[in-house]
Design brief:
165 residues; alpha+beta; 4 strands; 49% helix; 16% strand
């Protein structure tokens, strides 16, 4: 019960702190994307905060865990209408419903753990799609971003990077 209350408190705080008017990657991370690599737990936090700041355009779902119990995430980005219709769109595509006009774009980042720039690119792409390039959502309608796949290798790579560079 106590953990649930703490989680609700932090969610409420993140919504207050990172509303649409003031959320930027730099305000959340403390540095500009590309200045340094971002550790996995911060990427998870970033996408949660992005969803809290732009709930009408992004939905983040956990689709699994690594064997080290790190979350694997999928971010759905789209117009408000399509974010509210995710399941209907999915079912229409599964059933090859030709009347469904919503296109799906799949962006997959970081197949290999030491490809750390992909994570940074995913964070920047998601941010730009819900802010400066929002008009793309009208044409593409739905974008799926599959985040880091091999967390252990990325973590090992970043541990080495931060230790020696």
């Amino acid at each position: 019960m106590r953990n649930s209350l703490l989680i609700l408190f932090f969610i409420a705080q993140s919504q207050l702190l990172f509303s649409q008017t003031n959320f930027t990657p730099k305000t959340f991370l403390g540095y500009s994307i590309g200045q340094q690599f971002t550790r996995h737990y911060r990427v998870v936090d970033y996408f949660s905060a992005l969803q809290a700041a732009f709930p009408q355009n992004i939905k983040v779902e956990k689709y699994g865990e690594t064997y080290e119990k790190r979350d694997l995430l999928l971010a759905f980005i789209g117009s408000e209408e399509n974010i509210n219709r995710l399941e209907a769109i999915r079912l229409a595509h599964l059933n090859n419903d030709v009347s469904e006009k919503v296109s799906i774009v799949w962006l997959s980042y970081n197949v290999h753990g030491n490809e750390s720039s992909g994570t940074e690119a995913a964070m920047q792409t998601a941010y730009l799609l819900v802010t400066k390039n929002k008009e793309y959502l009208k044409n593409l309608n739905r974008i799926n971003i599959n985040l880091i796949k091999k967390k252990k290798k990325k973590t090992n790579f970043l541990d080495y990077y931060f230790l020696y560079f």
